[in-house]
Design goal:
heterodimer; A: mainly beta; Immunoglobulin-like; five-stranded antiparallel β-sheet; 11 strands; B: Immunoglobulin-like; seven-stranded mixed β-sheet
């Protein structure tokens, strides 16, 4: 069974709006990571949040982590058309990353 | 510094044929990983090399898949014979070491495999 599970599966917004994606996981973690995949390209590491952190910022990205609920959220503020991509959360219950199915974000101009 | 590269970017083959995917990790990275994303499903781990040794191959779906990393540099993933359900995007990633600080895996662009 998958470790990370994102919701929504798809999200469509207008440029300038904020986008929020959620991720739930099952086992205990040391950290949780978010990745982005643009169409036809590889996975790009966005941000890592450790289990003892509750919130982390990086540019227009804001990630929260609630270990009691085993959930995380990724907020993209002031979205741009270039943010259109699939976003995945990933955890590392063993030595390798375990990904969810991803949220497909479409930002329309 | 060059990133992780994969070749080919896209491969279309017929069922029963053989395909070999190649991954060149970032120079100096001991760890090399293969992942696969089948259409509409999550990205799944296939296997993990540390240098030339297979550290974990628990994700390999069956014996039609063979991964090698001769000399601990580039890696190949061979699918023989290919089946329709093997279609998907195959990602390779590398990371520097096994210490707790080496969280980040750097991913390649992926190889899109289409089996018809």
């Amino acid at each position: 069974s998958q470790q990370g599970e994102e919701d929504p599966q798809a999200l469509s917004i207008q440029e300038g709006e904020n986008a929020t994606m959620n991720c739930s996981y099952k086992t205990s973690i040391n950290n949780l990571q978010w990745y982005r995949q643009n169409s036809g390209r590889g996975l790009v590491h966005l941000i890592l949040i450790r289990s003892n952190e509750r919130e982390k910022h990086s540019g227009r990205l804001r990630v929260t982590l609630d270990t009691s609920k085993k959930s995380s959220s990724l907020l993209i503020t002031a979205s741009r058309a270039a943010d259109t991509a699939s976003y995945f959360c990933a955890t590392k219950p063993t030595s390798t990353l375990t990904f969810g199915k991803g949220t497909m974000l479409l930002v329309s101009p | 510094e060059a990133g992780v590269t994969q070749f080919p970017s896209h491969s279309v083959i017929e069922k029963g044929q053989t395909v070999t995917l190649r991954c060149d990790p970032i120079s100096g990275h001991d760890n090399l990983y293969w992942y696969r994303r089948v259409m509409g499903k999550e990205i799944k781990f296939l296997l993990h090399f540390v240098k030339e040794s297979k550290q974990d191959e628990s994700g390999m779906p069956n014996n039609r898949f063979l991964a090698e990393r001769t000399g601990g540099t580039y890696s190949t993933l061979k699918v023989q014979p290919a089946e329709l359900e093997d279609s998907g995007v195959y990602f390779c990633a590398s990371s520097h070491g096994l210490t707790s600080s080496s969280y980040e895996q750097y991913f390649g662009p992926g190889t899109r495999l289409t089996v018809t």
